Amino acid sequence: MDDFIERVTARLQQDIFSIPWGHHRYIIDKCSSDPNKALFYVQQTIENGWSRDMLLNFLGTDLYERSGKALSNFKYTLPAEESDLAQEITRDPYNFAFTGITGKYNERKLKDALLHNITKFLLELGTGFAYIGKEYRLQIEDKEKFLDLLFYNLNLSCYVVVEVKIGEFDFADAGQLGGYVVACNHLLRKEGRDNPTIGLLICRQKSNTLAQYALESSSQPLGISEYELQKLYPAKIEGTMPTIEEIENELNETND
Question: What gap in Å lies between CA 151 and CA 132, rounded to an integer?
């Protein structure tokens, strides 16, 4: 036990002194009351090579609180080591504020905006994601099926099918995504090179109970998360509270 503690302590000291003092100032300012949160940002900075601006951005989006929070069935559909890593790469909710969408939109507009900002999209998805294609075509006998977004995760060594829905999650969404995952395993996955494909559904809203039932009914590794386009309250100068009119306008835009 003493050896273990010494190794952990040595690793933490190594990590802490591996990032510049300017990064530490931001982390201390935002995470002084939570050592685990502080260490999370230290390790993420090292793994991803974040600049100070990028670190400040992720501190502002509550990445620590969102990381690994997707509802999933990975624990029951993947080997233990893979399931833990798969869970770690998920987030809930995903922050899509970088798309700049504030008014009415459809799924095509949202997906186009995500890919127009592909670098920021990949940063939000997390470590190890490589973009393969949008509306990726799969030929299944005489049928064509099109995946919303297809990625490959280098850390997991597997394909990741991402479906984006602008509405509320329903059972049919999980069934469709599970079918896509199976199809990718048959048509794209190479035995000995790739681990089983996983599916990630990112929707505007979900009932956790409904989502959990859908996950329990699927034999394929799936995760379900929500996304946000903006914070509910608009930014104010000098930290003042928004007016009632501004809150009502924000709620109206969100409902639209």
Answer: 5
Q: Is the peptide bond before 242 cis (omega within 30 degrees of 0)?
A: no
Strands (E) in 22-168, as ranges, are 71-72, 94-95, 129-140, 143-153, 158-168
Per residue in 231-256, pLDDT tens?
644 444 344 455 556 555 655 655 55
φ, ψ of residue 50 to 5 degrees: the values are -65, 140
Please give the average per-residue pLDDT across 55-81, as a whole number: 94
- As a whole number of angstroms, the distance between CA 220 and CA 180 comes to 10
Structure tokens at 4: 């273990």
Tokens of 232: 């509910």
For residue 113, pLDDT over 60 is answered with yes
- pLDDT value for 240: 47
Cα torsion 249, 120, 147, 221: sign: negative
Antiparallel, parallel or unpaired: β 198-205 and 158-168:
parallel
Distance CA 169, CA 252 (A): 21
Task: Identify whether the C-beta of residue 23 lies closer than 8 Å to the C-beta of residue 58.
Answer: no
